[in-house]
Amino acid sequence: MSGIVPIAASVVKPSRVGVRMRGMIALHEVTKRFGETVALDAVSLEVRPGVTHVLLGSSGSGKSTVLRLILGLAAPDAGVVSVEGTPVDAESRDRLVARMGYVVQDGGLYPHLSAAHNVALAAEAHRWPRARIAARVAELAGMAGLDADMLRRYPRELSGGQRQRVGLMRALMLDPPILLLDEPLGALDPIVRAELQDQLGRLFAGLAKTVVLVTHDLREAARLGHTITLMTAGRVVQQGTLADLEERPASPFVTQFLTAQTLAPPAPAGR
Amino acid sequence: MRPGVGLVVGVLLLSASGTGAAADGVIRVGSKSFTESYILAEVAAQIIEQVGEARAERRVGLGGTGVTQRAIESGAIDLYPEYTGTLAQVILKDRSLRTVEAIRARLVPRGLTIGDSLGFANTYALAVREDRGARLGLRTISDLALHPELRAAFSSGFLEREDGWPGLRAHYGLALHRVGVMEHALTYRAIASGDVELMDVFSTDGQLERLRLRLLEDDRRFFPDYSAVLLARRELAERFPRTWARLREALEGRIDGRRMAQLNALVDLDGKPIAEAAAVFLRGGAAAPSGTGSSRAMLTEIGVLTLGHLVLVLISVGAAIVLGIPMGIVAARYRRAGQLELSVIAMLQTVPALALLMFMIPLFGIGQGPALVALSLYALLPIARNTYAGLMTIDRTLLEIAWVLRLGELRRLLRIDLPLSAIAIMAGIKTAAVTTVGTATLAAFIGGGGYGTLIVRGLALDDTATILAGAAPAALMALAFHGLFELMDLVVIPRGLRK
Q1: Are residues B106 and B169 in the same domain?
Q2: What is this model's ipTM?
């Protein structure tokens, strides 16, 4: 899969956000409960602009909840989530979400719309002229390695990997500075998965975006993440590079998690 | 009825009463849906046409005293044949009114009047099979007390009216073990086949002789007098005095019980058209040999009724779509208000269709308009409910993504929510359309036209061919609608959602 072309100019209107803040994400002492369950327990983390940061952990560790809080799809019970220096709240979330692209497992495509139409939705809502939409879709298709015929198809007529690429194209349509991916490759078979991991790696390198990627897969974290946050049971266990985690584990759990994954499929989160 | 509702109904009643009412050179003649009522109404209509003072419009086959009473009070009809007993008990609700004069005096303040007796009384009576009656030695209603095992089937009117079975049972101290409710025309068959042994009949019934039924004597004089009279709005007599005078002259005291039974038999047993039976009476002779071309007339009528039925279904389902989809959207959007809203529509659905049609009469009179309102209300539930269900079952992730993509409320509704619910919404519309084709046959009871006109008449005349002439095309229309909507799926349901 080649032909990955970084986008030259920013498509999103230049914002008042300073260069230093652009794409920055921070959580400070964030707690989130769902009834009795504590999904996040005083979680703090910071993602620097332009970095690909991986939230690593088993299912139920709270990593997807972090993404939902950043997007403003849920509100924290305590603590502050901020995006580019602005706290995410009921008033700011509409504005802030425009700075983000969101990709979910299996693409989250609308089954009643063609792939191209799925990609074009946000631009249509912004009343882009047709020609501009078509040009941008073609540009993204080249980047994602999809041809025109595939873009005419409906989601159910595409393979899992193709759907995932369309979902990524859709998130990138307006060229937001932040890209949030929730287990984007979770539904794919191992070969396609490895192939797409490579492609995503090259893509992220070319885009210079802040990327937060949620995964339970250590290999994916190692392949794509500049930095990693290892989570379990709603808490941050350790933050750092893969080398940090391997060489200076903050607790026995870190070593346990890393070894389990190098030998076998992920085990349920232990505590 | 709560005071507020009563007030609203009252105001609408007043406004409705100003509308019809012989105001436009037309006299609207009504009838109930049994042979005798059809014949007398037709006789009256032919007389009105002969006098030429006004045009006669037939609004016949109305579904019972409740409908005819409201229709004449609201001015939807101007005239119909009624019985003194029914007037006293059901309409004026005063058993002590025995004479025509006494009843008339009480009707005048209501803007109504009656002429004198037409010369016969059509009283309720109980009848048993002749062979059964002879074997058990049944002569009088009192004798029934000794045979509680007799299988009885009564018409729903008789079963419920105070001057029917409830009063009779109390008056005679009767206790029958098995009392069923059955459409009159069907009871004749059931009694002929022996499934039923005891039934209520009318004393002028054309079938009594043929079926060898024994009338039981009302030995303790329970049944009041049911003299036939013309019930009319007073303004009819005032605006068209010649017509009213001629109607009274031609009918009052001119028909004895035997004559009426003959006319009934002419239609019920010999299969003559109602218009012919009426003409026979007016000519004063016997029946002419059966005319030809009646099957062609039937075809023309089916054509007209098909159009009427189509109008009923298309307009009411159309209105239900226009109202129901937004109601489903509102219900999905505002959960609590939505539950209330859906409960109210569901409650409407539990009202029997016939009763809902009746409720329309004080508000909108009789005819196509009120039928359309009732049918639209009836079609609302499947459409609103399915729209709601379709919207509520959309994958939550897809809705969140719509927010992240900042599509905006309206665009999201039109481009995402409704298309994703298209299969459920279309299923609701299909259900509504097919059931409305069926329910619309009931519109005939309030003069709404459509295939029901033939079904009601067929039931009244115990004429299977006429019933089928209404029922079969209705079934075909239901099938046609089903097919049509299956085709529409190809247009309405997005390709990506089709299986």
Answers
A1: no
A2: 0.85
